[in-house]
Amino acid sequence: MMNAALSVVASIPSPTVSYIDLGPLRIHFYALCIIAGIVIAVLLTNHRLTKRGAEPWVVIDIALLAVPLAIIAARIYHVATHPGFYFGEGADFWAVFRIWEGGIAIYGALIGGAVGAWLGCRWTGIRFWSFADALAPGLLLAQAIGRFGNWFNQELFGLPTDLPWGLEIDPANSAFPAGLAPDTLFHPTFLYEVLWNGLGVLFLLWVGRRFTLQWGRLFALYLVWYSAGRILWESIRIDPSEIYLGLRTNVWAAIAGVVLGLVIFFVQKRRHPGLEPSPYVSGREWSPEGAVQSAEDFVDTSAPPSAGADTQDATSALPTK
């Protein structure tokens, strides 16, 4: 009895509200968490990309394509992997479009976001892998922030537990498993993922700086880190999911994420042993207004041919693009 009381005292409460009303406008905390994550990811990516020599805020141009496609694909992925929620007898088809109620999948977002980022990079001249590496820590941080939306919605929790950090769920919540006692506590998988992702952000920032990982290799490590953790947290979640060969859909997606990350890392390491010459593709480089544009600005073009050696030295002093 004392142990049960201690568990309840030390448990993690769930928020009693998931939205606020401002006049006729209803604002869901889930949406605010997603938006906050996107904003922070954009800010951090902009900082990292401009340090490499990219035009300040070029990330906004890329995000204008990547973010909408990521959200659309994330919703499509969720609906496709949870068809029973939206189709068939007794299902509410129009719930497909009520994204503010929850239900977006990160692996769908990665697919849609990658397509949008590739298009945005083609538009701006930024190398796709340069952008992906700059994005990796911010993306993981955004995912950590977004998980608090699941906490507000009281969704995607794990198996019952008697651990002191068990999560309280309102028994009236539609996600509360039938047949369990109202005071049952559950694994706070949202918190596990927040902590794992937060640690991953620090790891990516450190390893990227320590080993100067470029050509998509830092993004590859992001895929491995996030997906490895997702395999664990997904395995203890009890929300409905399609099962294939004994594993939940997202466990298979996470396994694929680990494999893809490893493939990208080693393939890119073999193909590009050196450093990226510039965050821009050749011929699309950007320079601040008034900055030196070419080697001729450093070279006295009136010098006789014998000055070729000096010309070579001056040219080699330029930053590689």
TrEMBL record:
Recorded GO MF terms: phosphatidylglycerol-prolipoprotein diacylglyceryl transferase activity
Detail which positions bind a 1,2-diacyl-sn-glycero-3-phospho-(1'-sn-glycerol). R147
List residues traversing the bilayer: 28-45, 57-77, 97-121, 128-146, 190-208, 215-233, 245-267
Annotated region Disordered: the residues are: 279-321
Q: What Pfam families does UniProt report for this protein, alphabetically?
A: LGT
The family database entries (InterPro entries) matched by this protein are listed as: Lgt
Q: Does the keyword Transmembrane apply?
A: yes
Membrane topology, as annotated: Multi-pass membrane protein
Pathway entry: Protein modification; lipoprotein biosynthesis (diacylglyceryl transfer)
**Coiled-coil stretches noted in the UniProt entry, renumbered to this chain:** none
Query: Is Transmembrane one of the keywords?
Result: yes
What residue spans carry the Polar residues bias annotation? 312-321
The EC number(s) attached to this protein equal 2.5.1.145
Instruction: List UniProt keywords, sorted A-Z.
Output: Cell membrane, Membrane, Transferase, Transmembrane, Transmembrane helix
* Superkingdom of this protein's organism: Bacteria
Subcellular location, in the record's words? Cell membrane
What is the documented function of this protein?
Answer: Catalyzes the transfer of the diacylglyceryl group from phosphatidylglycerol to the sulfhydryl group of the N-terminal cysteine of a prolipoprotein, the first step in the formation of mature lipoproteins.
| Family the entry assigns | Belongs to the Lgt family.
Family annotation (NCBIfam families) = lgt (TIGR00544)
Name-wise, this protein is Phosphatidylglycerol--prolipoprotein diacylglyceryl transferase
Recorded source organism is Microbacterium aquimaris
